[in-house]
Structure formats: C-alpha cells, structure tokens
Amino acid sequence: MKKFIKSGAGFTIIEISVSLAVLFIILLAINSLLFLITHTNVETKASREALDNARRAMETMTYEIKGAKSIYTPTTTANQISLETLRYLPAGENDTFVDFFLCGFAICFKKELESPISLTSDSVQATNLQFSQILNGETVSIKINLTVNSVTLTSTVSLRSY
Length: 162
What we know:
Blueprint: H1 13-66, E1 68-71, E2 80-89, E3 92-103, E4 106-111, E5 117-118, E6 126-136, E7 139-148, E8 151-158
Antiparallel strand pairs: 1-2, 2-3, 3-4, 4-5, 6-7, 7-8
C-alpha cells in the first residue's frame, strides 16, 4: 500500500492574498513618496527660477538707475520709470532714454527707439513693479518693489550725480 505523505511545502490562498496585500501597500507608499519628492522638486525649481528672474531684473534696473543722468518726470509713474542716460557713441556723447515697466506679466526694458525687451522668462509672472522717488537733500534715490510669483524683492538705488 502506498503511503501518502502530506507535505507543508505549499502556500494557501489566504497566505498569498495577505502577502500580495502587504506588497501592494508597500508599493503604494513608495509611489506616494516618489510623487511627493517629484512635486517638491518642481516647486523648488519654480521658486528658484522666480528668484533668479527677479534678481536679474533687479540687477539690470539698479545698474541703469545708478548710471542715469536724471529721471525723466513726464513719463515716470509709480509703475514705470523713465531714465535719461548718457550713451557714448563714436560721434560723442548723446542723451538717450530707457524705461522699465510691467508689460503683461513680464518686466520690460525699453531703450529709446527700440522695441521692449522682457527681463523675465515666460514661465514666471511678475505681478508687481513699483518705483518710489526718495529725496535726501540733493541726492535722488529710487526705491524698487518687485514681486515675481511669490518672491518679493525691494531695493533702493541712488542716481549717480554728474
């Protein structure tokens, strides 16, 4: 007579179901963690790009204001500044005008007789650009408030006296 030996070498359907459920929960947790890391990375890159754009625009504006001869009052408002500058051309010195203003959601820089140039990239939105004139004796200073995405920068620049 043959003897049947019962071996415990197999898995029951319940053991397989439980192990698959545990594996599914672990994979779901890993997937959620990877999604969170990716989302945080995208937000960090956007914030860094906004800050870089705001700094670059602020540096350009401060450079031009420092080198300006005067503020051209008829076209200067709280949201736009027009500067009278000296440009050295082969024919000699020449007064020109440069403007900074908000055009749509970009900060624009316009030299006289040229088309405006955007100082910020298309992926960021400049929502605020304000200029305030500060008089301290004979020194003229400009306070700049700039908001790009959620980044706000403020700077005060004095005009160079000629």
